Amino acid sequence: MTDKYVHGYAVHEAKRLHDQAGSVRDLFHRDTRYPSGSLVLEAACGVGAQTITLARNSPEASFTSLDINAASLERAHTLQVEEKLRNVWLCRADLSMLPFDDDCFDHVWVSHLLEHCRDPVDMLTRLLRVLRPNGSMTVVEGDHGSCYFYPESRAALQTWRCLIKVQASLDGNSLVGRQLFDLVTSAGFRDVSVSPRMIYVDQSTPNLMDSFVERTIIPMVEGVRERALAWNLIDESIWSAGIYDLHEVARREDGVFCYTFFKGTANK
After folding, report:
1. Kind plus residue range of the DSSP H or E element containing 121
2. Residue 202: what are its φ and ψ, rounded to 5°?
3. What is the 3-state secondary structure (H, E, C) of the chain?
4. pTM of the model as a whole
5. DSSP 203-252
């Protein structure tokens, strides 16, 4: 799945992930805490952007944070050392071949993984295997189709849609958030519950406009530029105008951006 990760593994992408994690921390984590002594698997931890919050919020739980990319794990390790996280074990492994016995984790945390999977039900089934009976899974995914912004221009909309099309061409699904209930249920989990986690930003929250829109969302779109142009998904002049207009959303006094994530919980 390494070459299928639409956003890439460059240093600027690692920074984007940390900016995103900071801007949506409460949105994702406010209602997730793990009991003392719990063994928790964090699937596809990446650069550790979510790991730090998980570990801080449940200091008496033990986290196995797994990823396939060595460079991402190095960055996660640096963060682990900087933040003095003593309840995290980083592990390099392929999620399609989990190196764990059946029924060995009390809980599983998954965020921003299923959108990159060709077969998300198969991935969830593999995670179900390592979860103990009555154990829980929490999954967070975005949905690029939920986005709206003002002012809205034709160029900005076309540029935004390139993000959805490129990810689909890489066997991913950036609209996966709306499908969470069906996917988790189909994988064999029970007690499935999904809630929308909307983030709305206007100029009354300038810090959020900067951290989420300017430093998270727009760089995410810019990351597919090379593929979008090479695959003739958009004319270069329209792309440039679209990126400019997205920046204008963040800069204008009447600018508004809204996006919905989805958070699901389920039991084995």
Report:
1. helix 120-130
2. -140, -170
3. CHHHCCCCCCHHHHHHHHHHHHHCHHHHHCCCCCCCCCEEEEECCCCCCCHHHHHHHCCCCEEEEEECCHHHHHHHHHHHHHHCCCCEEEEECCHHHCCCCCCCEEEEEEECCHHHCCCHHHHHHHHHHHEEEEEEEEEEECCHHHCEEECCCHHHHHHHHHHHHHHHHCCCCCCHHHHHHHHHHHCCCEEEEEEEEEEEECCCCHHHHHHHHHHHHHHHHHCCHHHHHHCCCCCHHHHHHHHHHHHHHHHCCCCEEEEEEEEEEEEC
4. 0.89
5. TTSHHHIIIIIIIIIHHHHHTTHHHHHHTTSS-HHHHHHHHHHHHHHHHS
- Residue 46: DSSP 8-state: T
Instruction: State which amino acid sits at residue 82.
Output: E
Whether cis (ω within 30° of 0) applies to the bond prior to 151 is yes
Intervals of the chain under pLDDT 70:
1-23
Tokens 């190196």 correspond to 99
Q: Which two tokens stand for residue 131?
A: 């979860």
Range of the domain at 17: 2-267
**Collapsed DSSP state (helix, strand, coil) of residue 140:** strand
CATH code at 12?
A: 3.40.50.150
Predicted local confidence at residue 22, as pLDDT: 57
Strand partners, 194: 264
Cα 45 to its chain centre, rounded Å, is 10
CA dihedral 260, 5, 189, 133 (to 10 degrees): -120
Q: How far apart, in whole angstroms, are the C-alpha atoms of residue 150 and residue 248?
A: 9
- Structural domain tally of the chain? 1
- For 25-57, what is each residue's pLDDT tens digit? 889 999 999 999 999 999 999 999 999 999 999
